[in-house]
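The instructor's notes for this session suggest beginning with a concrete chain rather than abstract definitions. Hand out the sequence below and ask the class to guess, before any prediction is shown, which regions might be ordered.
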Amino acid sequence: MDNMTLLLDAIFFEHWARYFCFEETEDGMNASIEIPEVLYDACKEQVPHLIPLLENLQHSPIELSDVKSSIFGFVQKELAMNDDEFADFMHGMSLDPAFNRRLNVFYGFVQEEADNDSKTEDNMSEEEYKAYRAEKEIPLFLTWMEQFRSWAADNNYAL
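After discussion, reveal the predicted structure:
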């Protein structure tokens, strides 16, 4: 696996975990990532290279600084880079057209998913939405990635 693929896998995986596996706190003001055991076990089989990231994300609060720290810390450790090497790597990725294209297409997919969910949520009471989320089946990470690839192909985006 090349370095760019590892970085993208980590970004995509974190989005999947945050999007599907969040649980609000009782006060409704905060949320954390809570990956159900069945998905945790499936990830161990399907994406073993991401297990250190999964373990770091599990039970973590959803805060932007924590998200970036989790992803970048995972990738830096997996690539065995010191801080300067990792900074150079990330700078290179920020200038890489292939990386930026894949990331932008992914964000388009995520935005469409969020827009569709928002439309659903807008037509429900808070209680109805909580029941809907509780019953909604969470796709396996690789299944969701296949949905992304299909969406990209259907919309004529090259990955």
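Then share the key points. DSSP finds eight helices and two strands in the chain. Residues 3-154 form one domain.
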